[in-house]
Amino acid sequence: MTGGGASFLPTLPIKGVATAFAGCRWGDIMKVRLRGAAVLLALVLAGTGCTDGGWLDQTRLSFYTQGIDTPLAGEERTNSSLPEMVSRGNEVLAVLDLETPTLQGGRAAHSADNGRSWQPVLFDGKADPGMDLVSVAAVRSSQWLLVGHRNGQVFAFISSDGTNFTLQQAPIFETTGTRLNAVVGTDEGWLIAASPDSGSGGAATTLFQSSDGAAWSGRDGSASGLPAARGTFHPLSMAASPSTIVLVGQEVPHDRPPFARAFASSDGGNSWQDVSPDTGDVGPAGNALWTVAWSGNDFRVTGHAWPRDARPKRFPLGMSGSWTPGGVWNLQADAGWSRQDHDFPRGPGVAYGAAGALATQMIGQLADGEPRVLFQPPGQAWSELGMPQQSDAGLQLYGDVTAVEDGFLVVGTSSRHGNDGTRLWHVDGSGNVTGRDSPLTTAAPTAAASGDAHVTSILSSGGKTIAFGSVRSQPAFWELQGEQDFRNYTTLVGQEDQTLDTMAAGPRGEMLLGESRTANGHLPVIWSRTESGDWSVHDRSVFGAGTSQGKSEVRAVLPSRHGFLAAGSYDTEGATHAGLAVSEDGDSWSEVQSAELRGAPTAGRSIGSLAETPSGTVLAGGSVDDHEQSDATVWASTDAHTWKPVQLPRPEGYATAQVVSLTPGPLRTVAVVHSSGPGKPARFDIFSSGDDGRTWEQGPALEATSQEHSVARPRLAANGDGFVLLATRGPAGQAEAVLMLSKDGREFTTKDLGHDAFDQEGLAVSAVGVAGKKLLVTGVSGPPEARRPFGIAVDVPSL
Q1: What pLDDT sits at residue 44?
Q2: Residue 597 in 3-state DSSP?
Q3: 229-238 pLDDT, tens digit each
Q4: Three-state SS sequence of 94-114
Q5: Number of neighbouring beta carbons within 10 Å of residue 713
Q6: Which of 479, 454, 475, 453 is nearest to 467 (CA)?
Q7: pLDDT, position 311
Q8: Cα–Cα distances in Å, from 217 out to 16, 140, 247?
Q9: Nearest 5°: phi and psi at 143?
C-alpha cells in the first residue's frame, strides 16, 4: 500500500473470531472443508486376504501397499490447530480443530493450572459438540461461552465451570452476509459485535446481547450511539473491563485520510459514547486502531500510523497506547511494534497481564512471511522473543496468545509435509519459554492412523480405472486389476512442504492438485503429465494473486484437449474473481482474460469444479455472489478462452447456492448444486445438460428432514450412458446411505444396495467409482471413538 491517507485495514480480526472469519462470508465458512487427504476417509486394506468374520468380509476392495516404505509412508497424516484461547486467572479454555483420517471437527479443552495440565470439555456429556465450533471463546465472572454454527445459524454453549457445556436451543443469529467481530462478557451478560460482509448493504455494526447466554436479542448499533448504518466505520476489536466495554476500529471517509475510532459503553452495550482519540499528531496521513485489550489497569491498543512524510514510504509505522475511562489517550508511534522498512504485521494477537505484554505477528507477503513473537516487560519497549525451534518441525507459525497468572500462553503450529501439529508454549515474566503442547494434545487425542490407503478419488483414464490417495503422508495411485484388486501403485515424491490431494484425468493426460504451506497461507501445487509422460510441477500462483483467507487460489484442475486447466478464485482490487488459467506444458501458465469471470466488490465469482464433455466443451462450476446471496453458475467454453455463464435456479427460501461437482457422461453431464439458508438444513439439487451446458434440466433434490439432520455431498460416477449417485442422509452418527440410479442423467430412481456396510453407525462415503459391473465404494463407519474404514465392491443394481 503506497501513499499517505491510504486505508490499511487488517486482513484478520484480532480476538473473538480469530483468523478463520476474516473477510469470509459465513456461508463460505460453513462449506465442507476439503483440506488434504487428512479429511478423507481411510480404506481398509485386504492385501493379505485375511478376514474378520463380519460384514467387512463381503467383497472388499484390495489396495496393495507392500513396498511403500518411504519416510512419508511412516509419517502420520494428522492435522490439529488451536485457533482460540481465553483465560481467567489460572484457568484457560482452548478451542481445537482436529482432522484425521477418521475424524474431522471441533473439540475443546480446559486447564485449571495455567496450561500445565488439560482435560477434555464435554458438550451435553459428549466430547463432540455435534456442530462446527466457531473460533470464539469468552469468559465472565460466573460463566464461560463457546459458539457453534449449524445450517446457517449461530448457537451458544454455556458453562459454569469451563468443562461441562450445555447447548442453548435458540439460535443467536443467522449467519448470511454477517461477520462476527468480537465477543465479550461483563457482569451484565454477553455482548457480540457483528458486521456485514463487504457489499451486503447491512448496518455498520449489529449487537447481540444476553444476560445468561440462553436468550439473545439483536439490534442495529447505530440506535445506541455507534456510527450510522451503511456508514464508513469498520469495527475491528472489542474488550471489556469490570465496568466498561471499548470497541475500536477505523473510519474510512471519502474526503479525508482514514482515522482511528473508539467507542465506550458503561451499561453492557446498551448505549455508546464516542471516545475516539486525537491522532492528528501521531498519524496525520492516516491511522487506525487494530486491537484493544484490558490490561487490568487500563485499555491497551495497537494500530498503525502514517506520518506526514508518508508518501515516499511504502508502509506505515506501528502505533500503540492506552486509555483509562474518564481519562485521556496516550498514543505514540511505536517502531518496536512495526517499522516502516517492512510490511505492517498481519493478524496480530496480543495479550496483557502482570508480566507485561506478549504478541504474535506475521510480517511479509504470501510466500515469504516472517512469523515472530514480541515481548514487552512492564514499562519497557517491545522486542522480539526467541522461540525454540524443533529441528524436524518444518514451518513454525504463531497464533493466539492469552495471559495467565504466571505469565502467558502462546499457540503455535508446526507444519511438515502438510501435517499441522498444535504447539503450545508458556512464557514467564522473564521471557523464559517452556513447551506445554503435550498435555494439551493428550486431552484432545487424535487416533493414530494405520498404514492404510487414504483414497481421494476413483476415476478412469486411458481405458484404466485408477485410485488416487496416500499411505499416511505418501501420495500414491493404483491401477485396478479385475474388478476389486488395485495393484501397480506408483508413489509420488515432491518437495517437503507439498501435499497432493486430488487427481483429475482427461484427454490430455492426468493432473494432480495440492498445496504448499507458507507463512501466510497456501500456494497451489499442480502436477501435470501427458499419458505415460514425465510429470511437470508448478508450485506458484497461476492467477497472479492470492485469496484474502490465505487459501490456495486453485480449487480444480482438468487435463482437457484445449490444454491443462486450473480454476478457482482470487482477490484483487477489492473484489473476488473467478480464476482460469491454461498451460500447454504444465509449467508455464497464462490466465484467461474474460469479462464473464471478473467479479465486483458486491458480486464475487468463484469456480470449484471442472469437466469436459465428449464434444470437447469445457464446463466450470461455481457461484456468482450478490450481496448476501449467491447463485450456482456453470460457465461453458468450446475453446477454454471464451466463456458463457448459465445461472441455475436457487431453491426458494435458500440464500446461497454453488455447483460443487460436474460429472460428464457419454450423453449428458450432471451437476450437483449445494444450497444453504438461515435455519435450513443442507440441500443438494441435481441438474443435467445434454447440450454441452447451454441449458440445464432440474432433477431430484436431496435434503434433510430437519435442522438437526444433514446430507453429505453426493458422490457420482458415470455408468454407461447413465449415472450412479451415492450419498448419506440423517442425524449425526446415524446417517443412512441413499443410492440413486439413472439411465440418462435426467431421472433418478432410488435403489437399495442390500449390503451390511451401509447399515453401520457413523456411516460416511468418501469415493465411488464403476468398474465393469461393480460399484466401488470407500468410506468409514462406527462410533466416534472407534470408527472403522471400509472398501467394498458390489454389483451395480439394475433399473
Answers
A1: 35
A2: helix
A3: 666 888 889 9
A4: EEEEEEECCEEEEEEEEECCC
A5: 18
A6: 479
A7: 62
A8: 19, 19, 19
A9: -160, 145
- Grid look-up 515474566 returns 429
522: nearest Cα among 558, 475, 555: 555
Position 725, amino acid: L
Rounded to an integer, what distance in angstroms lies between the CA atom of residue 481 and that of residue 464? 9
Per-residue model confidence as pLDDT tens digits over 723-750: 999 999 888 778 889 999 999 999 999 9
Query: Model confidence over 236-282: pLDDT tens digits?
Result: 899 999 999 999 999 988 888 899 999 999 999 999 999 999 998 99
Residues 6+ apart with CB under 8 A from 104: 33, 38, 39, 98
427 falls in which pLDDT band (50, 70, 90)?
A: very high
Q: Measure the CA–CA gap between 790 and 60, rounded to whole angstroms.
A: 8
How far apart, in whole angstroms, are the C-alpha atoms of residue 375 and residue 123?
36
Half-sphere exposure of 500 (CA within 13 A, CB side): 27
Cβ-defined contacts of 665-669 (< 8 Å, 24+):
665/718, 665/721, 665/722, 665/723, 665/745, 666/614, 666/718, 666/720, 666/721, 667/721, 667/744, 667/745, 668/744, 668/745, 668/746, 669/611, 669/613, 669/619, 669/693, 669/745
- Per residue in 370-390, pLDDT (tens digit) is 899 999 999 899 999 999 987
Q: What are phi and psi of 525, to 5 degrees?
A: -125, 120
Res 46 pLDDT > 60: no
Give every strand in the sheet of 233-240, ordered side by side. Answer: 233-240, 245-251, 259-265, 273-274
Q: Which DSSP symbol is given to 757?
A: G
The pLDDT of residue 134 is 87
Instruction: State pTM to two decimals.
Output: 0.84
For 633-642, write each residue's pLDDT tens digit: 999 999 999 9
DSSP string, 193-251: EEEEPTTS---S-EEEEESSSSS-EEEEGGGGTSPPTT-SEEEEEEEE-SS-EEEEEEE
* Bridge partner list, 159: 144
531 Cβ contact list (under 8 Å, min separation 6): 461, 462, 509, 510
**pLDDT for position 21:** 26
For the chain, give the mean pLDDT. Answer: 85
Strand ranges (E), 128-216: 132-140, 143-150, 153-159, 164-167, 173-174, 178-186, 189-196, 206-210
pLDDT of residue 441: 80
pLDDT range class, residue 544, cuts 50, 70, 90 = confident
Cα–Cα distance measured from residue 423 to residue 440, given in angstroms and rounded to the nearest whole number: 9
Residues 6+ apart with CB under 8 A from 421: 78, 79, 80, 393, 413, 414, 415, 437, 441
119 - beta bridge partners? Answer: 110
Place of cell 450511539: 225
List C-alpha distances in Å: 384 to 210, 339, 354, 381, 436.
40, 13, 19, 10, 21
End-to-end CA distance of the chain: 62
CA angle 286, 292, 295 (to 5 degrees): 135
- Measured CA to CA, the distance from residue 122 to residue 143 in angstroms comes to 15
What are the tens digits of pLDDT across the range 163-182? 999 999 999 988 766 778 88
How large is the C-alpha radius of gyration of the chain?
A: 26
**Phi, psi of 441, deg, nearest 5:** -70, -25
Question: CB 733: neighbour CB atoms within 10 A?
Answer: 15
Name residue, grid cell 448496518.
Answer: 203
Q: Any bridge partners for residue 466, and if so which? A: 459, 479
Q: Which residues pair with 515 in a beta bridge?
A: 499, 524
Cα–Cα distance for residue pair 346/14, rounded to 1 Å: 10
